[in-house]
Design goal:
Restriction endonuclease type II EcoRII C-terminal domain-containing protein; Restriction Endonuclease; elongated; alpha/beta; about 55% helix; 6 strands; 2 domains; six-stranded mixed β-sheet
């Protein structure tokens, strides 16, 4: 992800740039990342088919049609399982990808952030996708720490997401997502538990009057202001 970030020249940008262009930056990074993923999957398929062919006794068969039919029949389960593994891998990568992108943007803005931070709630350890400035700051004053959860898409899983994060203490939880539409039931539940949805700027324009939804650019402003509190904090 850092290579893509640098390839697009985003590692040279500052806070002012991302406050104006964070959403566009995420879109550009994901497009470039998807191109890389497609190439990786293409290479994986080529290796898979080469392996399958090497195990058959039909590669020298002059009847191409029979070769193809026999090949597909013989390895249909292998092909299915391999394709399923690629799909599952893509989903996992997509989830971590968004988390990594947000982390890189924060760092480019010189806003401290910790990935997979561990905090304690009533003696129970909880893992948060991203914490700014750090889990240590959370132990000092949880009201002045930015807690971020990243979910590429919510869809029918939003109730599961709600269960994951609603019991965490703090002024609010910021949930970054690339979804574009949200049912009223979701917005109502998230507002009840003080969960702030963070979306791309183009999506925010469709929810201008909804205080439960902010843009990624707004999150950067909030996080920067919050970090200034810690810069002046007397430990």
């Amino acid at each position: 992800m850092q290579k893509i970030f640098a390839k697009l020249g985003l590692n040279l940008k500052n806070l002012d740039f991302f406050i104006a262009n964070a959403s566009q930056s995420i879109h550009a990074i994901r497009q470039e990342s998807f191109k890389d993923l497609q190439e990786q999957e293409k290479q994986a398929w080529e290796k898979f088919f080469s392996f399958c062919i090497s195990r058959t006794e039909i590669q020298e068969d002059p009847e191409l049609r029979n070769i193809v039919l026999n090949f597909c029949n013989q390895f249909h389960q292998d092909i299915y399982e391999f394709n399923l593994s690629l799909t599952q891998s893509r989903r996992v990568k997509a989830g971590k990808e968004l988390e990594n992108i947000v982390e890189l943007i924060f760092k480019a803005c010189d806003i401290p952030i910790k990935k997979q931070g561990i905090i304690k709630e009533k003696g129970v350890k909880k893992i948060i996708d991203l914490i700014s400035p750090s889990p240590e700051n959370y132990q000092i004053n949880p009201e002045k720490v930015i807690l971020i959860s990243c979910k590429t898409t919510l869809r029918e899983r939003w109730q599961e997401v709600l269960e994951e994060i609603r019991d965490i203490q703090g002024p609010q939880i910021f949930l970054v997502t690339l979804d574009e539409k949200f049912p009223d039931s979701l917005l109502s539940s998230f507002q009840k538990f003080n969960i702030q949805l963070v979306v791309l700027e183009t999506v925010k324009r469709n929810y201008l009057t909804n205080k439960c939804i902010i843009s990624l650019e707004e999150l950067l402003k909030i996080s920067r202001k919050n970090y200034l509190y810690w810069l002046n904090y007397k430990y």
